[in-house]
Write a structure and sequence with these properties.
By secondary structure, the chain is mainly beta. It has a single domain, classed as Protein Transport Mog1p, Chain A (3-Layer(aba) Sandwich). The protein contains 2 helices and 7 strands, in the order βββαββββα. Strands 1-2-3-7-6-5-4 form a 7-stranded antiparallel β-sheet, with helices on one face. A hairpin with a 5-residue loop joins β1 and β2. The mean pLDDT is 89.
Length: 131
């Protein structure tokens, strides 16, 4: 993640179950000491009870400017979400009953590290994470 991760902090993991029985395993890595959710990397996996439950959750629904990507397991999309205080670079992959998400959030106005491409960087990280 190049210069975005120079202050990478240890991950804060959480395992939980949603009200509908969906198992959620997530880990948040602050990209600098004391950073909030607008300056972090998040990896999350959701295991639904059925493929229909996964489809009903609209796993790509929150991706702005989403585009299909190849080279990952199942159907996968990349998106850039431009929010009020941050920009999120997101890869979501779905297969059978599982949705996997890798999100890197940086404060608005933060440039992509020189010599890198955010999409290529996230897809490479997603591959390493087994997406």
């Amino acid at each position: 993640m190049s210069s975005w991760a120079t202050g990478l902090q240890p991950g804060q993991g959480e395992v939980s179950t949603d009200r509908d029985g969906t198992a959620i395993d997530s880990c948040v890595y602050a990209l600098e000491s004391g950073a909030g959710t607008d300056h972090s990397a998040v990896i999350e996996q959701r295991e639904f009870k059925t493929p229909q439950d996964l489809a009903a959750s609209a796993p790509f629904g929150l991706l702005m400017k989403a585009e299909a990507i190849s080279g990952l397991r199942g159907d996968a999309k990349y998106g850039v979400n431009t929010l009020t205080g941050s920009t999120e670079y997101v890869v979501v992959s779905v297969l059978d009953k599982t949705s996997s998400k890798l999100l890197v959030s940086v404060p608005s106005g933060t440039a992509v590290p020189e010599g890198t491409n955010a999409k290529e960087m996230l897809v490479a990280l997603a591959k390493k994470a087994g997406f």
